Amino acid sequence: MKGIVFRGFLNLVEENFGIETMDAIIEESDLASGGAYTNVGTYDHSEIVTMASHLSDRTGIAVPDLVRTFGNYLFNHLAKAHPDLVAKHSNSFDMLDAIERDIHREVRKLYPDAELPYLDCQIEGNGTLHMLYRSGRPLADVAHGLIEGCAAHFDETITIAREDRSTGDETTVMFTVN
Amino acid sequence: MTDPAILQRQLDREKRAREEAERLLEQKSLELFDAKEAAESSRAQLQDAIESISQGFLLFDSDEKLVMANSRYQEFYPHLSGLLTPGRTMQELVEAHARSGQTHEAQEFVSDRMNRFRNQSGQSWEQTQPDGRTMLINEKQTASGGLVSVRTDITALKQAEMLLRNRLAAIEAAEEGIAITDPDGNFIYMNHEHLQMFGFESLGEIEGQNWKLLYSPEVISVMENECFPALIRDGSWRGHADGLRRDGTSFPQEISLTLLEDGGLVCATRDITARLENESQKALLREQFNEAQKMEEIGRLAGGIAHDFNNILAAMLGYASFLVEDLEPDSELQGFAKQIVSSGERAKKLVQQLLAFSRHRESGFDATDIVELTGSVTEMLRPTIPTNIDLSIRTDVPRSMINGNPTQIEQVLINLVVNARDAMNGTPGKISLIVQESVKPEERALVLEQLSTNPSPNMIEVSTADDGSNKAWLGHVVEGQDYVCIRVRDNGSGIDAKTMEKLFEPFFTTKGPNEGTGLGLAAVQGIMLAHEGALVVSSKVGYGTEFILFFPVVEVEHIDAETAEDEADIEIEIRDRILLVDDEPDVLAMLKTAMDRSGYSSVAVESGPQALETLKETTQNFVAVVTDFMMPEMTGLVLTKQIRELHPNLPIIVCTGYSENVEKAEILAAGANEFLRKPTTGRDIAAAIETAREGLTH
After folding, report:
1. Is the preceding omega at residue B406 within 30 degrees of 0, hence cis?
2. pLDDT by residue (tens digit) across B295-333?
3. Pair type for strands B652-656 and B622-628
4. Which terminus of chain B, N or C, has less C-beta within 10 A?
5. pTM score, two decimals?
6. CATH fold of B577-697, please?
7. pLDDT band with cut points at 50, 70 and 90 for residue B213
8. Does B556 touch chain A (CB under 8 A)?
9. Domains of chain A with CATH codes
10. In terms of Cα–Cα distance, which of A64, A66, A81 is closest to A17?
11. DSSP code of B226?
């Protein structure tokens, strides 16, 4: 996982729970990277899971909720960093549909070794979006938060239903958004 | 207040992250540098590869802009070479191509071409260039949305394809059957003629089947043991073998086999059934032609001999008759002289046989009643037939007239009846002569068909029937002409097939020495053909033989009947002078003696010029000129014409022993008054002189 994600997570923790909490979970997690992340570096995804787990212990907030919040935060970060990518779209469904087709494609050009989740969107005429999340990492909650952040950005009220279809080492979740 | 230790740790983390970022950046830069070098190397390799291919290559990016075009493409489209630079749009190139005059309907071409560029089906297509070249075009979209276009010049391939198609058409149109097998001997190709030859309609019926299907086990054995070793040794084999049609019938073939590189075979074959039949027919015709030529030569030889013999016989018979007249009656010497005359007469008949065989159509053809003639010959022969042989005659018609020579027809009947008698070999038997208007109705069609189809009237056809009977026929009959036929039938020993083939050959005889000359049936052949008749012989060994003679029937009034000769005794005016002309001294001397003994005073000269000279000197004293016809210095015909110019009323008698080209009518037309055939007697000549003198007097 790219360092930019870790830095985003730590920024979120620092902004919401203070530098002490951020320092504490880094120290408690005994990370291989030592918590020194650079955007272009690549790090083991389990470090973010470990840190989320210690954050949950300290804050009493469940890990999925923390991770979902991180997904929400990531979308806002994307919108601020690359407003042109978001401005092309007028609603959350088009935006979500373009993530795999446009954004991931560009990421792969820049970082050919990037291990990105696969997001396959299908929009139905009755205002329903089916988004299939497939990844070797157990971070479906990041996607969940991403959907929520996207809807909030477009000022939309949505409901999200999840169906876990995971098998073996792969995490597969079907999100149905109305 | 934040714990300084926490801040320090965070600063350390940031520092490490920065150092890591720098390290990664440096690493990335090195990687990028390496990647750039590798990419440039790959691009150079790719460019080199694209330049070295024989196809024209064109690459557009996803914005329809040209990325690269190799030099081969520029060779194919020289009118675009200045435009094939990176960044040029597909539309610009297509429009430039259209403007160059390489296409018709430029606007439509641009539209179609762009449409094809943008909607690739992945299928290749062919494009014919204005200069006649043919391009195979393959176009495909790249993964990045660009387009690759590859042009292959397939002109040579198309020409080769055309050549192959033409060759295949030629093979299909060939009159020879042509087939190809794989190394296992299974058919992979067969042309139309080969299919038909073996009774197949389409290749599908025989494709994949083994060649052995078309041959009998015996032929297969010969092929495998004799032909194939030679084929493997020499690479080809020619020969003959019987093929087996689909319906099981066989036919003769001429075969040429050629070994292919892959072990297969090319077989070229012809059905030679018709050719073998033609060759057989030609051989038969050649044999018949040779036989006819041989007969013609023998006939000519016989005619020449007869001419000389007649002259010799004329002298011998003349002098012998003088001896008979002058010697004491019933004396021994007169008996000797009579023997000479008798032998001379037999020799004379032999000469007549030779002349008859030579088919010389002599004068003496008259309206002849064949019924009456057959009757009289039968009665004449009856005393010569042994009493244990029943000789009978039946005439189904009262009278039937032909244009014929009675003496020759007599000769035919005598020869046939004598042969029939001899066929009895001394045992009792039966000989029947039957005169009919024509053959029996049931036989008529068969006989007439055989005679009508006889290829040459001079040829003799022979056949053997299933029941062992042999048949021969000669001459032919004419459709619409009526024929009278005489059957001469016996129940003697019969004629076998081998004898039948030589039956009419001169000097061929089955009789013992001194019993037959071998000229009898040869004379019959000559006489029948001279009478424009035909003859059929049917015989079966042990059962007997039947000769059927066909003579064309004529209306009596069509006959240019000869004037009947006056048989009355001739009153001769004593000492009338006649001029005798003959180049044969012996004959001339005999004639002079004969005429002198007949009461004439004759002058003998040996040539035409001498005769003319003599006439000029003593014209008034001659009452007639008697001249030979065939003389070396001046023929009797020329002499007659010249005498007639000088002496319109002098009787001229022409005597001839044999002539090929001159007819009696021609001699009379030249001015002669009478025509005599040698050997002649003094009495014959005297009668002719008197007839001529009477004619001139009246």
Report:
1. no
2. 667 766 777 777 778 778 888 888 888 898 889 988 989
3. parallel
4. N
5. 0.40
6. Rossmann fold (3.40.50)
7. very high
8. no
9. 3-61 (no CATH), 67-177 (3.90.1520.10)
10. A66
11. I
